[in-house]
Amino acid sequence: MSAEKSLAADGNAPTVAIAVEDRGIREALALLLQDRGVQVEILTLETHDLLESVRRQGADVVVIRRSQIPASEYETIDRMTGGAHDPGIVVLADAEDAGDRVRLMAAGVSQVLQESRPEPEIGDAIHAIAGAEAGGTVGTPEVRGSRPEPRIGDFFSRSPRMLEFLDLVRKVVDQDSSLLILGETGVGKERLARAIHAEGPRAAGPFLSVNIGALSETLLEAELFGHEAGAFTGADKMRRGQFELAKGGTILLDEIGEMPPHLQVKLLAVLQRHEVNRVGGNRAIPIDVRVMAATNRDLSDDVKEGRFREDLYYRLNVVPLAIPSLRERKEEIPDLVGRFINHFRRDFDSRQIRGITDAALRVLVQHDWPGNMRELINVIERAMLLCDGSQITLADLPVGLRSAMGEGEAEADAEALAENSEAQFPAAWLERPLRQVRRGVIERFEKAYLVAQLRATRGRVGETARRSGLAPRSLHDKMKRYDLRKEDFRGTGSPPLS
């Protein structure tokens, strides 16, 4: 057994242990990481000794090749991370395999990278993960119940679109200019704002977030700018506003497009003069705060239609950061699914769920995710709660996702079941009589079929009955059995997620 210490000796720098058996890869990565200020240790050990050494190593990140991890991924990763220090694990793979990636991520791996990628890209990825681990985060987008201080490294992605976006983010982190964060609901706008604050020059100061759309005009003005005693009924004491309370830090104005016109004028004055006037007061109070704003609306359209002031728009829009939606970076979904399974597996410690079938993963990758990351997190949590076996299957996904699966894919899944494919056939079914399994499958199929028909007819029961070849009374009975309401399919025609 031997280990060679690198020349990087900064005690505050993140530490990476490279346990790759290929000497060329080891040395290339070591040089790249040392150039980025990372402390590197190179481990040259046999697999058995390697696992024990990694456990005791104390590194923030361990880099290992896929071929060095035996088939029992979960036992191996547990041995590597089961010590007093829990390092991030980066796996270098020689082939692209989405299913294998999910299994590794579900087992606790931080990232799976292809060896064919340029070495500087691999080095950048490891550096980002090391920075996140050293900063106390887990390199995973936030899920409910887990609120570590976010870092830019948390957003590491294999998507070219997202990588380009993150390059822009890193350029503005150290600046003090206003930022406008754009993106659909659920993409993580507030989390990105928190990450920029945590790595910026104002990290030692407070981060305050105000949801503009959640407050009435009167409350919003007082919340932002404060008020003097007696300014209005109920204002018994002087109260400082969020701009004053955020002194030395950052304030995020979420849903900025919902701000009333007269407060837009007041906000513009605050941004130009760096001072506020409390409600009911006539004294200008200087402020020292970085302002970020976020919205899921197209503010340029609001400007054209007169709903948002043009001068305020340009004042806020110094650097626009448009977070790509999840459907624009679907190559991330297998990694995210694996990470969320790993997270919820720790929460549901009585469960032995360690992956997802290929068919279920295909459905998740194809879905458009209008709710973005938030929707994906909810789907995985729900599936973990409902899953009876060791893998999430199609039956564990919301019927709205399953019913959107293409006919050819459904036939392929049926063929896999007919062949008793272990990856597709739920092990729990083998513990039940055939009649119970058959009834359950038929009921799931019937519900999925009726949901699709009701969606197509926008909840028109008569038309649905005609298209389905059912008597209206029979259709009503089935809708009652499956808790389907015609009202849920009107308007957009979207089915309920159940």
Question: What kind of sheet is the major sheet?
Answer: 6 strands, mixed
Strand portion: 5-15%
Annotation field: number of helices = 20
Shape estimate: flat
Low-confidence segments, ≥5 residues, pLDDT <50? 1-10, 136-147, 419-423, 492-498
> pLDDT average, as an integer?
79
Our Rg estimate from Cα atoms comes to 27 Å
CATH superfamily of the largest domain: P-loop containing nucleotide triphosphate hydrolases
CATH fold label of the largest domain: Rossmann fold
What's the count of strands? 13
Query: In CATH's first tier, which class of the largest domain applies?
Result: Alpha Beta
Give the domain tally.
4
* Secondary-structure class: alpha/beta
- Any idea what the CATH architecture of the largest domain is? 3-Layer(aba) Sandwich
Strand order of the largest sheet: 1-3-2-4-5-6
Q: Ends: how far apart?
A: 54 Å
The portion of residues assigned to helices is 40-55%
Could you give the topology of this structure?
Elements: E1 2-5, E2 15-18, H1 23-35, E3 39-44, H2 47-57, E4 61-65, H3 73-81, E5 88-93, H4 98-107, E6 111-114, H5 119-134, H6 160-172, E7 179-182, H7 189-199, E8 207-211, H8 217-225, H9 242-245, E9 249-254, H10 261-273, E10 275-277, E11 284-286, E12 289-295, H11 299-304, H12 310-316, E13 319-322, H13 333-347, H14 358-366, H15 372-386, H16 399-402, H17 407-418, H18 434-457, H19 461-468, H20 472-481
Parallel strand pairs: 2-3, 2-4, 4-5, 5-6, 7-12, 7-13, 8-9, 9-12
Antiparallel strand pairs: 1-3, 10-11
Helix pairs in contact: 1-5, 2-3, 3-4, 4-13, 13-15, 18-19
